[in-house]
Structures are given as structure tokens and as C-alpha cells.
Amino acid sequence: MIFLNCIEVKGLSKKYGNFQALQDVSLEIKSGDFLAILGPNGAGKSTLMKIISTLLKGYNGRVEICGYDIEKDTKKVREKIGIVPENFLLYDKLSAWENMVFFGGLYHLPRKVLFERAERFLKSVEMWDWRDKKVKTFSFGMKQRVNIARAFMNDPDIILLDEPTASLDVKSALAIKNLLKEINARGKTVVFTTHILTEVEEMANKVAILNFGHLVAFGTLEDLSKNITDKTLTVEVEDHLQDDLFAQNDLRVQKIGQKIVFNYTTTQELDRIINLIAQSNLSLKSINSSNGDFNRLFLKLIDKGRDKN
Length: 309
Ligand SMILES: Nc1ncnc2c1ncn2[C@@H]1O[C@H](COP(=O)(O)OP(=O)(O)O)[C@@H](O)[C@H]1O
Ligand SMILES: [Mg+2]
What we know:
The chain is of the alpha/beta class and about 300 residues long. The protein folds into two domains: about 5-220, 3-Layer(aba) Sandwich (Rossmann fold), CATH 3.40.50; about 230-290, 2-Layer Sandwich (Alpha-Beta Plaits). It has ten helices and 14 strands. The protein has helices at about 45-50, 75-80, 95-105, 110-125, 140-150, 170-185, 195-205, 220-225, 265-280, 295-309; strands at about 5-15, 20-30, 35-40, 60-65, 70, 80-85, 160, 190-195, 205-210, 215-220, 230-235, 250-255, 260-265, 285-290. The protein has a six-stranded mixed sheet with strand order 6-7-8-3-9-10, sandwiched between helices. The chain has a four-stranded antiparallel sheet with strand order 2-1-4-5, covered by helices on one side. Helix 4 crosses helix 5. The protein starts with a strand and ends with a helix. The chain binds adenosine-5'-diphosphate and magnesium ion. Magnesium ion binds near residues 86 and 163.
């Protein structure tokens, strides 16, 4: 059966004591999506990830994965997902190979399949040559690579990763990003958390922005920058600017020296700005427009989340 929404989060709220870590979060993730859950520290990313991964209970709302309720059908859900939590899920005293076989063994796979997968996934994270070394002797980046390979042992449709590149050196981070892109290209749904904007732009097709437990934006990168970002039109003039110029309108205007910066969102606003400039008799030196970038959008949305608290 094909489920259009492979993950559905409906009205999810989570409290730790009196502290509201998630507030009414709803989102739908489609099969084949590459979703980034983006937010600053403390935004609730790990909380959301732990709940979706079936590792944290005691919440309000519902989460369904492939049509199964994660609480009622936990076993079915766990067959569909591969989990990479924020802390390594590995035994330090075992070798990389033994870890793969141990965790793969939890899925009751035939030995042949178990060994074949352990080999394939250790190779895909470039840890095959290190397979007989104990995990405790590995660098942080090597541990994370085995940790990710381990999450593939049940051949999941969906892979859930909490800050998979955090604290990694550039080379290890790149290897992991490439691996995730590759498995997404092969049809797997990938959901990961990050606080790094460039990772979102590099990898994801969709982004959910969390702040103070609120979902402040959700959609494709193009949709978000098209609809929400403030665009600016900067006009540089020859004359000295009067202080109250353009003051009698509700446009968002800033004067910086000889420059006037208009902020607008819709094309209607832009029309009004252009009319105003045309009627103002200013002699223009230059005009510059910017469509806004993702960085500014992110900062703006984070402010929005703050207002809600
Ligand atoms: N077990 C817990 N008990 C109490 N508060 C917690 C617990 N886990 C997380 N929090 C708080 O919930 C908020 C969200 O945490 P978390 O989901 O880890 O955010 P993120 O992963 O975005 O940094 C933070 O303020 C954190 O201090
Ligand atoms: Mg976290």
C-alpha cells in the first residue's frame, strides 16, 4: 500500500513538568521527502524527533507513520524507521561489525541477510576497513558513521536523524551529507534536525522551523522564501532627504544616509512603493532590489516564535 503522507504529526504538545517543550505542532511528511527540522538550541527539535522515533511518550496529540499510530502500533512503526538519536546507540566494547550484527539481530533477520547488510552499510559509510576494531577506539566522526550504518540494518523506508553532523569534522560531515542525499535519491524518506542553515539549503526539499516549541514555518524552501520573506527595494537619491519623507503612509521605510530602503512582501506593496517614488520628484542615483535570503527569513521566523511565548 502507498501512503501519501508517510509521517503525520497532529496537534503534538509535550511538557516536561511545567515546561512546554512543544506546542501544537502539526506537519505532514510525504514519502520521498528530505525534511530538515531547523531551529536554535532548545527549540524542541530533539523532543519532536524522540517522539516521532517512538523513544519518548507522555505527549498530547497524535503521530502516525505509514498509517500506523506510533503508540498503538509501535512494533510496526519500528520496522519502518531507522533511528539516529543525539547520543550514539552503540556498544563501546564491541567492534563495528559486532555492533551491526547485534543491532541487526534485534530484527530477527536470517543470518545471510544480516551479514550482507552489515557489510553493505559499513562499506557505504566507509567503515568497512575498521570493522574489527572496537568502537571505543574510534574518533567521534567514525562513531557517528557506524551509528548511522546501524540505523540502516532493518532497511527502513524512513530515516530519522537528530543533528547527524553536529560536532563532526568537515570531512566526516560531508561523507554523512552525501550518504543521506544518496539514500534519499534512492527513494528513502529522510528527516533530520539541524541548527545550521546551510545544511538545509544543501540537502532538504522541505523545512520545518521550530522555535520555543512552536512550528513557525513549514513548507518547501521555495514556498517559504517566496511567500514569507521580506523583499527590499533600495533607492539611492541625489538630494538630501527630508526626515518626514514617506512618513504619511503605512509602508515600512528606513532612511540610511542617501538611501531609502523599502521593505515589502507582496507585489501590491511594491506597486505602491513604485508609485510613491514616481510622484516624489526625487532624482534617483540607483535602484537595487533584493528578494531576501533564507538566512533573513529564518531570523524573522524565529522572532515570530518568540512573540508567541
Ligand atoms: N528531560 C527533560 N526535562 C526537562 N526539560 C527538558 C528535557 N528535555 C529537554 N528539555 C527542555 O526542553 C526544551 C527543548 O529541548 P530539546 O528538544 O532538546 O531542544 P533542541 O533539540 O531543539 O535543542 C529545552 O528548553 C530543554 O531544556
Ligand atoms: Mg537537540
